Amino acid sequence: PTARVPLRQIWPDDFVARYRAAGYWRGETFPAFLRARAREFADAIAVVGGDTRWTYAQLWEQAERIAAGLLAQGLVPGDRVVVQLGNIPEFIAVVCALFRAQLVPVYALPAHRLTEVGHFARKSEASAYISADRYEAFDYRALARELQAELPSVRHVFVVGDAAEFVAIGALDGPRDPLPGDPDPQSVAFLQISGGSTGLSKLIPRTHDDYIYSFRASNALCGIDAASVYMVALPAAHNFPMSSPGFFGALYAGARVVLSPGPGPDAAFPLIARERVTCVGLVPPLALLWADAAGRSTHDLSSLQVLQVGGAKLVPEAARRVVAGLGCRLQQVFGMAEGLVNYTRLDDPEELVLTTQGRPISDDDEVLVVDDHGMPVADGEVGHLLARGPYTIRGYHNDAAANARSFTADGFYRTGDMVQRLPSGHLVVQGRATDHINRAGEKISAEEIEDHLLAHPQVFDAAVVSVPDDYLGERSCAFVIPGGEKPRPAELKAWVRGRGLAAFKVPDQIVFVDAFGTTAVGKISRRELRAQLRARFLEDQ
Ligand code: J2J
Predict the structure, then answer these.
(1) ipTM attached to this prediction
(2) Source organism's superkingdom (predicted)?
(3) Same domain, yes or no, for 156 and 218?
(4) Domain range enclosing 58
(5) For a substitution probing ligand 1, which of 197, 336, 369, 439 has the most ligand atoms within 8 Å of its CB?
(6) Which candidate, 397, 381, 504, places its Cα nearest to that of 442?
(7) What are the residues whose beta carbons fall under 8 Å from the beta carbon of 381, sequence distance 6 or more?
(8) For 210-257, what is each residue's pLDDT tens digit?
(9) 280 lies in a domain?
């Protein structure tokens, strides 16, 4: 079998020339930089997790072994591989191996279930699936069986741990000489998953050149160098702990990556003390939890230099509590898997750090704040954020309809976020124009959940909205008009769960109503309807 055609992400020629000339795109690739670090930092610890401590040389050896094994099993360069692994060292080894073999990872979160994993596999035309045997009490081999039954094109399943009838990652090996050379730096290195504001998640193609630029530049803004110890506390497949600066930034710098098995203080604090962690990224609810726990903790957290908070809005009062509780530097991070990432700078005045979500990484990040008609608004006014730049995609993978909606004719990505830009260039996130729920950083599409509720025989209509939540920031509330006998809320929740979805997508709250009670005559948009229901919910509080 021959290689599959590499996926491309197309920037117009003049932009390619500009991004190269500016030194953003240097022709670096994942396998090339990982190989170089394995030489340069051979005996330095690269990855710590569970009982494993791999040096850079050992990580590279794992990557080469697994890469050779995957090709020996019949995968060919260009094949897409859905990877669903938790915060274990094998996650990093497997992803590095895929890069080494010119295979294309498609990142699923451990929380995803058959419906989502099936969608990723179908949409990416994946030929393989890699999971752990079990993670957080879930058996992924059962999911693999269902996946293969539904999608025989997923011909290979590889498992970390007890593989049952599948192939164990630990047992993979093969001849090293047919391993391919380094890929085209402008080819797509992997497919990341979008937050999915309309319906199912879109796949985000990121190239070697653009992604490596984003974390190389992030390192400089986040203070990451070879002496740093970066902790992955959020699920490692999230774009934030992967690239802002994330474990890839840390590996690029020759730093140490420490994988925390969970995001809470119980799991993370002892590891911070033991490994002398210097930097970690959290979502706002966790940052508050950490700040509260730090005061009572007996663990030595004094090594922490930078606490990054992002994924959802950190309001100024919460920012103050985080700073007071943890006593290290706060860095706000406002990013997206599609590209654009904003950071408050480590030397920004405290007021900006507490009250803004930072400014873009690059001088060539073009940020527009526009009104509903696409006209730029004055600094300080709230408008839609559009972005274009050297690490922001120009289109989703294989999704013409989404691309028509999500990009302007001149290639700006419509982020869906409403922001205010200050004269300093710092952005303040003021809400969003799209209907999703940002549940502690996990983005949930209202439409996707409505579709699953509507499939229930006792649901006549359903509208899912985000409502404020003291802990999560936002939670999901489903307004349901019963059809026939009213189902019990627990039954509807179980129904959504049973549709093969991540648990975080199950509505937190269900409110039955007789009618949506819209005063508008005729049809109103789902958006307006959700806005009305949300307003009604807030009035009733
Ligand atoms: C308000 N909203 C925010 C913030 C993201 C770094 C950090 C985060 C992500 C991420 C990421 C926010 N304040 N500080 O990929 O590299 C909301 C916005 C944004 C969406 C993107 C990274 N930080 N958000 O969260 O792809 O609505 O990426 O458009 O998961 O999260 O979500 P996602």
Answers:
(1) 1.00
(2) Bacteria
(3) no
(4) 30-182
(5) 336
(6) 504
(7) 369, 420
(8) 999 999 999 999 999 999 999 999 999 999 999 999 999 999 999 999
(9) yes
